[in-house]
Specification:
With 478 residues, the chain is an alpha/beta fold. It is built from 17 helices and 19 strands. Helix 1 packs parallel to helix 3, helix 10 runs parallel beside helix 11 and helix 12 crosses helix 17. This is Cardiolipin synthase.
Length: 478
Amino acid sequence: MHVFYTYLFLTDFKQDWFLAVLRFTLILFVIFHVLRHVRDTRAAIGWIGFSLIMPITGFILYVMFGVNRVVRRAQKLVNNRPWHNKLLSNMTRYYIKGHFYPLAKVVEGFTQRPLLMGNEVEPLFNGDQAYPVMLEAINSAKVCVFLSSYILRSDKTGKIFADALITAQQRGAIVRVLVDGIGSGYFYCPIAKYLKKNGITIDRFMHSFLPWKMPFINLRTHKKILVVDGTIGFLGGLNIAGENILSNQPKNPVSDTHFKVTGTIVHELTEVFLQDWFFITAEDLNKKSFYPAIETKGNMICRIITAGPDTDMEKIKYTMMQAISLARESIRIMTPYFLPDDRFLSLLCLAAIRGVNVEIIIPEQSNQILVDWARNINNIIPLQFGCKIWLVKAPFNHSKLMVVDRVWSFVGSSNVDMRSLRLNFEVNMEIYHKEFAQTIDDFMGSHRHRLLTLEKLNNRPALAKFRDAITRLLLPYL
């Protein structure tokens, strides 16, 4: 009996010793890895604290969700892609003068993309205007069609686009389609099945049911890109779904703004799609036929800017913040979800304090109730410092627009929230053109319905304030 108890004691001692060493080793790993790779101080403190309290669980969760494998994957693939930007070298670069010179200089520095002269950008409102023009372009394709969309529904509208893509490939055009692994259906994506059945090469962005690939589930491509023959491009906020055709009176209508682009800037947009396609599939579509010689189409000066949790980290946010810091007269931002971080809000407040007319235009009610609750807390600070927040009446407006001093415009897929500005893969375009900026600025101004006031926010019931404060903790994930 004595021997038996001695055995149990030694066994327990060995197990306790092993677990103690294991916990200590895992804690050291998390601490050293966090200190080397996690830039956000609050996130770093959170991961270290969690690993100290629960070493094994903390280690598992950190390895799954805290390690940014996307950066390493992107760097590896980009470094193995020698044609990156080389096909753009023959384009005519343009250099901005005046008080926006610092903006142009800074953005070129961190994007490594030039401003290109000789473009025409046409706004298209809702699917009613945009879809017929997009389908016309696809139906004219002879060389290639590249489509990337967060949502490509398998409804009547989605099937029309799918059939146009199938027909284009049957005519001999090279067709590639990239849809998001969540936005277009995580467990079941009928449009992907339909396109594959008809011979279209389609992939779902970072989609997998494998547990070791779960870290990517929170990283989505929110880009909306269509490029045809390297000469016509489309980008903006518009997904492909029946809810965007307002004339059909859908049950949950979504108003949106998209843009048709022609001219030299289409080369940059083409490269963005091919970079994403290579990132996901490793298929190198290095064909000069995708970058044909393009005649200048207008006098707009444009540049494509991409962002994502890879080598493009927060570049869209940096662009917007630099533009805000240079504003002299006015800033107008139209976004479906307004949940920026404190740095972004501080710049808006400072602009308002120095006399800039700052207007944020958001839906009276979005399609995400949690976002509406969380934004109530965020809206207090800009209102305190003189920013104006306007509410847009129904239908829900999904447009993503920004104009500074009625001269500089910024359009694309990115919302002004932490998810878009940090986690999502996004694509925007900056435009230096006074008349275009005035058109977009006036469009935003026409949607101002009701002014939000501090009094309105402060008079909310105590329970609602408590609810909003709790919801705000989810900001990085909304």
